[in-house]
Amino acid sequence: MKFFVDTADVKDIRECQEMGLVDGVTTNPTLIAKSGRKITEVIKEICSFVEGPVSAEVAALDYDGMMREGDVLRKIAKNVAVKVPLTVDGLRACRKLSSEGTMVNVTLCFSAAQALLAAKAGATFISPFIGRLDDINLPGMELIANIRQIYDNYDYQTNILAASIRSVNHITEAAIIGADYATAPPAVLKGLVKHPLTDKGIESFLADWKKTGQTI
Ligand code: E4P
User: Fold this and answer.
1) pTM for the complete prediction?
2) pLDDT at 111
């Protein structure tokens, strides 16, 4: 499974990168707003040190507007994936951008039917939002499983990018199901390393080691 870090904070991305956790980056309008920076500047900076796909989302809702904004975004760097919402106009823009060789991340996916349409429109990534489904008591992980099944049934090449991830368990479960990618906030990615028995084990090994009086 490949990991994208879900943030527009350059310092956080660099930290995760040092831990080998960054196969790419996803951003969205909320994350750009949080960064307090201009979208073109921050995406350009991220692309200068991240080799993998960097998702940058259009804000327009109509096809022409999406294409205009998508053009600005894809010109920033070769590894920009233009992110479009799962709407009729978003799917039209996806088809066009994909046919022109631009990576497209179709976002805000909440049903398997929507994911099927994104694959048919040639999306590079489909982003099913697990956490936001769980938030309204709908089974987010079931959506990942259903999309996996559909894409495998018809050999669609669109990558399943598990998104809106809130916990380490979300990542583990999505990986077991076979999601190709997961995008998660830096804190969740860093949380993957943690286990209380690892800490406990280190503590007891160190205590015993001290008793030997040895150094290496
Ligand atoms: C994905 O690309 C989105 O930016 C992100 O996963 C949304 O997560 P949220 O539901 O925690 O805002």
Assistant:
1) 0.96
2) 98
